[in-house]
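Collaborator request, handled under Task 6.
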Amino acid sequence: MALGVALIIIGAIFLLESLGLSEYGIGELWPLILIGIGGVILYERLRRSLRRG
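Structure tokens returned to the collaborator:
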């Protein structure tokens, strides 16, 4: 799940950059991508632990 979300975000960044709609490139946004991946991982683990009861 986290890998899929990360690939979508990275692809969207590249698309916006190539279309000239974003002045930020992947070099400036990689910390946000790492934070997003970490958030998705934490969310998934929390959801799994709540299911187990």
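The cover message to the collaborator said: "The chain has a mean pLDDT of 79. The chain is about 85% helix and 0% strand. Please let us know whether this matches your experimental observations."
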